[in-house]
Amino acid sequence: MKDSKLSVRRLRVRPVAVPMRLPLQTSTGAVSIAPLVLLDLETTAGITGRAYLFAIGRPHLKPIVALCEAMGEMIAGDAVAPFEIEKKLRQKFTLLGVHNIVLIAMAGIDMAAWDAYAQSVGQPLVKVLGGTPRPVRAYNSKGLGIMPLKPLAKEAEALVKEGFSAVKLRLGRPNAKDDLAALRTVKKAIGPDVTLMCDFNQGLTANDAILRGRMLDEEGGLHWIEEPTRADDFEGNARIAAELATPVQLGENFMGPEQMARALAAGACDYVMPDAQRIGGVTGWMRAAALAQAAGLEMSSHLFPEISCHLLAVTPTCHWLEFVDWAVPILEEPVVIEDSHVITPSGPGVGLRWDEKAVRRFSA
Hints:
alpha/beta, Enolase-like, domain 1, TIM Barrel, 2 domains, 4-stranded mixed sheet, 12 strands
């Protein structure tokens, strides 16, 4: 029976291309704009649940928008019950497969549905999930891409001065000695009291990752080595993790908690960091958090700081929130940073509100 008090009226879907303040060059590609898909789940009660998706590149906006719009039509008139919506959409897309952009579109709707539901009961999402609003430890992940050493040092200093005690460096230069030089440059710039992570963005073979990882082990000073080789090569990552002293971090490319379970079974990593849109939104995240707790592994987030702070606040093995400001230009109220922590909003829902003038300006 449908809930006439809070049912889906329609899903509004809008693509935008937001310029990034700090364009990011990684070992496998460059990102200079944030192509986002904005979702407004309008309900019969006048409440609107909001979420956004990161399309990686502008060419991906159109197919993600089309999938979201098709799913919106499928759930029109349904009760805003996130578990039931997720179950229905999974059934509808079983034959096509609930992976990649199909899962990403579903995750966006899931996040918007949870936002609407939380607003309807007048509570922040974190409370609806059984927790309380609290500061969540975060690291600054906006920059430190593949770049010359002098600007790299200046950028590292600037990122720390924004109020963070942890930053992440991208590695994966053609020559290993250049990666080592970059690491030493950033360590000198930020000092010994700032936590430093590194990310290869899947740029190495498993064998090369072991060789470079041993070099980084000897150098010391790294909190984790992220995605050293292809993310879905769980056996290769397991070999790397077994060989290195520095913990290996995986997770941003886990497609749903099912794939995360396979990675954990393979011993592919020491830490996990799911991505809200790839793990399956709020619903998928909660299932993944249970897997991390059962495995005894610390769990961080990838991108989406606005909703990740709510999710990490109820994650038993909460570790680090990855902070980026890519959506800030289109938000009325960005998340607040205090002493290297993101402050989880205490108002109803997730706390997303669009700056409509900016949305029109960056419309794609």
